[in-house]
Amino acid sequence: MTDRTQNFSDSSADDPLVLVAALYRFTPLADYETLQLPLQDRMRENGLRGSLLLAAEGINGTISGRPPQLRGFVEWLRRLEHAGHRPFEATDVKWSGCDELPFRRARVRLKKEIVTMGVEGIDPLQSVGTYVDPEDWNALVDDPDVVLIDTRNDYEVEIGTFAGAVNPKTDTFREFPEYVKENLDPQQHSKVAMFCTGGIRCEKSTAYLKECGFSEVYHLRGGILNYLEKVSPEESRWQGECFVFDSRVSVNHDLQAGQYSLCHGCGWPVTAEMRADAKYEHGVACPRCADEMSDEQRRRRRERQRQIDQQRLQSQDADAQRGSRSLPI
């Protein structure tokens, strides 16, 4: 097995212009609302952009910025004391790099769940599947007795997945429990392996299967992003690109920005070929949804895109006036 680890967590002469950190941590958070402003203020002080979610069950999000500032924020987060302990000390982080900031603003939002499944009582801290490291994943999925499930949504699966994986064809993660009830049986499916982008959805999906009586449940530690980082393309079972929830839209096997953009009309990934189609209009519609769009919807989306473009220019002007070395957005 070839080790492809890019240790973006440490400073390097090969640092990318922009560093991206996808992070999560399931941990009980009493009075989690009181953490919202300190986190948001710290992000803005360091020029970071992205989104963090806070709930009573923990933290989740993806943030970006200049490498020194982002690393410093993650270290500060891990040392942060709350309710007499450091709840984020063991926060899981997946690092990647890009040339432009993939977010327009910094925000910290309060939620009921940090990843929404909608099933009461599912607690990954109490019951969870068996973690499988990327280096051991191929051997597991090559087992003919293993049912391999992609827990992501349909639009994510379309641009890339593991060879042989089952697509549940869900529009949201809330639909996953219903898929399990209708398609999986603890008596028939003795071994179930699951994966998602960064690992967080599988924390809940495996916990849910354990509650449903499945005995052997596995999930990919650190998700697809960790697998792409650790496993060489020559040995990989991954096919295509990996959808990410920022302006990069997708990353390839080297964790660099992929070929896809996002249609703001239907929310599905768009290829270069689709962007060349006469029905494609940036920020408005793609060939998938153009014929279903009313004139009023088209007008509203054109206005929204005009406002987005205007905000981007204003942000660039503000960075220039502050005299800082502004990052492209």
Automatic annotation (TrEMBL):
Residues 293-329 are annotated as: Disordered. The keyword Aminoacyl-tRNA synthetase does not apply. GO terms for molecular function: oxidoreductase activity, acting on paired donors, with incorporation or reduction of molecular oxygen. It catalyses: uridine(34) in tRNA + AH2 + O2 = 5-hydroxyuridine(34) in tRNA + A + H2O. Signal peptide: none annotated. It comes from the Bacteria. Residues 142-236 form the Rhodanese domain. It holds the Pfam family UPF0176_N. Its EC number is 1.14.-.-. Gene3D superfamilies: 3.30.70.100, Rhodanese-like domain. Keywords: Oxidoreductase, tRNA processing. It is an enzyme of class 1 (oxidoreductase). GO terms for biological process: tRNA modification. Belongs to the TrhO family. Catalyzes oxygen-dependent 5-hydroxyuridine (ho5U) modification at position 34 in tRNAs. This is tRNA uridine(34) hydroxylase. The lineage of its organism: Bacteria, Pseudomonadati, Planctomycetota, Planctomycetia, Pirellulales. The gene is trhO.
